[in-house]
Amino acid sequence: MYNTLPKILEDTAVLHSLFPTEQVVLNVSLLSISNRLLAHQDDPDIDDPFTPPQGHTLGQATGESSTGGESTAESEEPPPSQPQSLKCDDCGKFLKSELDAQAHASRTGHANFSESTEAIRPLTEEEKKAQLARLEDKIKHKRAEREQKEKEEKVEKEKVRRKSGKELTEIRQQMELQEAKKIADMKRREKMEEKLARQKVKEEIAKDRAERTAREKKAKAEAGATAAASQPLTTAPQAKKEYDSCRLQIRLMGGGAMTHTFRPSDTLVDVNQHILLNQDGPNQPFLLMTNFPKKIFSPADMRKTLKELATNFYVGLVPSAVLIQTKP
User: Fold this and answer.
1) pLDDT tens across 197-244, in order?
2) Containing H/E element for 172?
3) Where does the UBX domain start and stop, copy by copy (predicted)?
4) What are the structural domains of the chain?
5) Given 16, 225, 240, 295, which residue has the most CB atoms within 10 angstroms?
């Protein structure tokens, strides 16, 4: 039995579950028990046959020693009974030593012990084997419980990990959805602002045209009255044909073209605004030019009417012409 217990004591995790350390009496550790068993594992067992020393035989003596021994035994009284074991007053179990009592107290929580003169019968080989088998079965059972608990904890941790991963995925998807919605709202707002800006530009162009038309009519009326008053008898020269429309074809830098009919009183600013509002793609800075005759209109020409440009530069914008969009 001494040779088997040290092997069992190696499984400290199981023994700690069998004997909780917080309940150990007098702070006796498993290590001290193991060391004690290892130190006395070669001692003769109580059940081993006794070999008497050579030269002596139990019950025999020589000379005076034998006679003196018998007379002494007859004259002396039998010694008082000595404590042979410890008894647990809580459950009535007899224990061999203080170490056994401490282990019993740690295992059961019992705390009341008393000395007893009743000797504990030594275990037979069959009882030792049965007790060892019970202890091994208990260790196996505890180990199986621990392994089952570890397996369940592993499964639970895997469930928690999967749940956490699923929650993280849902949070990430929700954040992406919110970001996409935010971008869509921003684009929609920018598109609305651009639409309002174009509408405002159109209104300003229409207002400018109306004011310019009114000024031209007033100037023509005043000029006609002045000419009639200063030359009443002069024969008026044949009036030059006046056009009331100007059809322009605009060739864009991207390769496309657009055609629109303007009034001779419209300026190049009006033409530029029409291009910006109706061309596809991003708006970029550009200039306008003609090929025949070749003329690139500068920023100073932007406020001049199509009629003035046709008269001053002979570029032939009225009644029709081709303008080319070019980079500055």
Assistant:
1) 989 888 989 898 899 899 888 888 888 777 666 655 455 555 567 778
2) helix 125-230
3) 241-309
4) 1-40+82-122 (no CATH), 246-326 (3.10.20.90)
5) 295
